[in-house]
Amino acid sequence: MSSFSMSALTKALPSHQFVRRNDRGSDLERQMLNGGPATSSDKSSGLSAITEMMQGRSAGSTSRGSESSKLAESLEAQMIKNPYADRAPPHHLHVYCHKHNTILTLTRPNGNPLLSIGCGQIGFRKAGRSGFDPAYQLSAHVMSQIQEKGLLMDIERLEIVFRGFGKGRDAFVKVLLGNEGRNLRGLVTRVTDSTRVKFGGTRSRHERRLG
User: Fold this and answer.
1) Fewer CB atoms near the end CB (10 Å): N or C, the chain?
2) How far apart are CA 77 and CA 80, in angstroms?
């Protein structure tokens, strides 16, 4: 063999080996993307595998999004039908503020009374039960009794129900917002007024006139 042909062969060998190594690397890449041996006819198999993967993820995310939206709609419908389904029913503290007396009654959620005290039970008699100070002392006494008897542990939510416009209403509010009601006012979730309003009905008593 001539020297010219030998030099030409040695020059051609490195380039030939480099091409084969590139072919092997492309085969490995195609096998990793496709999960199997690559063929010469399939030139865009890697791109198709990636696109298929992305399409699958997008389809899964849309299906999850639709499921979560349906779940949210069903929960919203249940909350509209029964807004207090996820919460415990409240206890009730009835504040009956008559012009001659003040009576506080704590009841269970079903209406059974737990505690009922009036101004007459703490030492006030007759006309002395109708003032602001008896109602203030009564409110402080009732809140201390609730803590001493351990009733505060059973109360998760408390609803205060006012009835009447006597002096005991302002006295109870002042005690509840003061130092005596610090453990009870955090449980209050609703304040309602159940003062009776007469529409028609029987004839009212005549107004008292002096002089």
Assistant:
1) C
2) 5
